[in-house]
Design a protein that fits this description.
Number of helices: 16
Radius of gyration: 42 Å
Distance between the termini: 135 Å
Structural class: alpha+beta
Strand content: 5-15%
Helix content: 55-70%
Number of domains: 4
Order of helices and strands: HHHHHHHEEHHHHEEEEHEEHEEHHH
Oligomer: single chain
Amino acid sequence: MTNTPETPNLLIELIVHAEPSSLIWQFGIIALIMLLAWWFDALIQKKLITTDTPQHVAIKSVKRITFPVFMLLGVLLARIVFKHFGLPVSLLKLAIPLLLSLVFIRLLVYVLHKVFPNSSKLKSWELSIAGLAWIVVALHVTGLLDAVLAAMQEMSFHLGRQPVSLLVILQGLISIAATVLAALWLGRFLEVRIMRMEEMDTSSRVLLNKVLRGALLVISILVALSLVGIDIRVLSVFGGALGVGLGFGLQRIASNYICGFIILLDKSIRLGDVITLDNRVGTVSSLTGRYMVLRGQDGAESLIPNETAITQTLVNHSFSDRKVRIKITLQVAYSSPLETAMQIMVNAAKEQSRVLSDPAPAVNLLEFADNGILLELSAWIDDPEVSQAVLRTDINLAIWREFQRAGVEIPFPQREIHIVAANECVIPAQRGKQASREAAARKAGIQLNEQTAA
């Protein structure tokens, strides 16, 4: 197959101009460029990365890109110089697409790591991207790329009156993937910077991030469709169909998204709030468009739809004040020193670092119960998101130890049982006769013994 001048076969060109002296010069200049790029890259990293600030961490993350970029710039400059002096540049021309492919692979992998930082499939994506990129480079170097593209263009079919080829489909997928990925990366970049704006409320920052990300995604899809050649005016028909779908089958999903924006706008729920919702108590760890993540004190995470937070009664324990009262109820025996027991309970709460001094801990006498006196200890904390189980355990242990020393008794349920004697278990008639005899004997002054009574 004959290659056109626009797509030369770089391998054939290298073999044709493979003069030992020219190859040595080109190999030497490439090696020198590699050393200079490595030295310059190390110098930049050493000068700029001195601390672990967010800016320097970002510079560290692009370290893999700087070296191939420096090499590519050096090879391009060397080719210009060699052409100016009329020297062969076949090896330099072959190195340029290889370096371009390396820059593209590392740049794309860098963007993927930024957009999907915790994805378990990144490694497989990296291998797939690298494999496809090197296949394209191999086709370009051998001059077969245009032939493959022409064959894909010939593989076409008609979608209505519009001819669609395999090449157009491939271009559309690449355009959509590239624009959406760029939008996600830009959204992630803006999100990191917006979340650092401490002068702005947390809910406002989350809302701004979601609006920006949604706008960037819509713009990226519209740009991708325009690049492929699809008239975006046809989306009006799709918009009408989407409206019908929302009216029938997707109204709950749409309601959750709308409720999510309402929550962020009215700031009724913020990140870090401790709430009780749908019989669940926990800390709001994430607010998404469709649901909120409620992390319980046992570590379990509940995904609650945003509509639930709007339509049901929600208890926000930290809406205007993060102070939360904890109550510990116990009984002491009636024989115990009551004032001493109350003071021990107050002191046990004051010894805990999490318990606030204002309001101070207090003990209330609730009631005189059947088995003992019912007391209630009230203490306030300002970190409701932290589990209270450990705090309660520490206070109870301190109370128990001091009760043991002071002789304060914690009562247990008691019952009085009256045992009826065997001689009382007689029939009513005999009991009446026996009572009459005993009365007559007492009247006569005669003491009946047990045998006489029988």
